[in-house]
Predict the 3D structure of the following.
Amino acid sequence: MPFVVCVGFLMLIGKLCRLTYEQISVVFNLWLQGAVLTLSAILPAAMSILLLCRGFSVLRLLLAFFLVLYAILHIWAFFWMLGHYHLPFDRAFYLCVKDLQELARRWHTTYQMVNLLIFVFAFLFLLALNIGLSYWIYTIL
């Protein structure tokens, strides 16, 4: 049921944007979600550097170091994903479907479950983590 709701949501957004289901899936799930996660991972790193500039301590230096590495990991993953799922849209969409089916086979579950785990639950978890880290650093500032 949740997968059907997600598909319906994408189809509605696609219709409003005059994009096919394949096109809106690539734009929304890969490009938009990837960009949002990457930007949300950069924010705590930038805030930790600002915190370090306001007053030096070894703890602040370590925090900045690890959060910058965390942001770099997100940036690398985003650019890897953009390279792997490059245009044309149909190619990117069907390669993503193939990869999700392969993960489903390896994890002994369904394509729909892997899709939900990655594009809904993992996305929301990482986004909440990045927002939480940013909020935590903001309260220190």
Observations:
- The mean pLDDT is 94.
- The two ends are 43 Å apart (CA to CA).
